Design the sequence.
């Protein structure tokens, strides 16, 4: 005797609930970011967020403990997008010269900074004023770890290269140029940003890991 299949209704109900939850959470995040650009974190109320998102206060507290909690989620998810783009770019170019990997990382970061530039400016400003020192260091260290992955993936890295130090300086260069480009509050010149970042990073990696002549 064949076992009975699970009731189709149970499966059909579970997915919409998950989908609705995702859309509600995303609507609240999008509303927060839009208001953040206009007035800054301190000038936003939860009532304004839920009104713009088209949800209720009850829905807000199903997903977020407070406005600060929502801010941290938005920061975390946007930063993860940049981290993921970097990781994928390195993996796709593993085994190639370090210069090629550096160029791929820069291109991936430019692509990952999609969406309104003022939102990215608000993101970097919020990161400076709202992230705890511990959270900031932990996320920064994750980017440094990705740079170490880039160095280890390069075909031409000298065995003597101090990867931890080189990786930290690479991240400092890239983060500084990108963050300040968006903090101006207007769309940066992507070609100029890529050129400046490439020149700075190439100069650094050529200094610590000179190419064979």
Sequence:
């Amino acid at each position: 005797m064949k076992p009975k299949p699970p009731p189709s209704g149970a499966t059909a109900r579970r997915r919409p609930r998950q989908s609705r939850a995702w859309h509600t959470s995303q609507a609240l995040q999008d509303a927060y970011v839009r208001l953040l650009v206009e007035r800054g974190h301190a000038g936003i109320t939860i009532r304004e967020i839920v009104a713009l998102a088209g949800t209720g206060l009850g829905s807000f507290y199903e997903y977020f403990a407070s406005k600060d909690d929502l801010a941290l989620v938005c920061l975390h998810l946007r930063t993860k997008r940049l981290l993921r783009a970097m990781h994928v770019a390195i993996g796709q170019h593993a085994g190639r010269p370090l210069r090629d990997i550096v160029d791929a990382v820069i291109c991936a970061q430019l692509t990952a900074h999609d969406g309104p530039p003022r939102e990215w400016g608000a993101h970097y400003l919020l990161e400076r004023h709202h992230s705890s020192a511990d959270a900031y260091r932990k996320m920064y260290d994750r980017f440094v770890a990705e740079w170490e992955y880039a160095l280890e993936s390069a075909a031409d890295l000298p065995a003597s290269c101090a990867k931890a130090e080189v990786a930290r300086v690479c991240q400092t260069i890239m983060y500084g140029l990108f963050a300040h480009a968006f903090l101006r509050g207007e769309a940066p010149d992507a070609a100029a940003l890529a050129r400046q970042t490439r020149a700075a990073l190439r100069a650094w990696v050529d200094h610590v890991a000179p190419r064979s002549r």
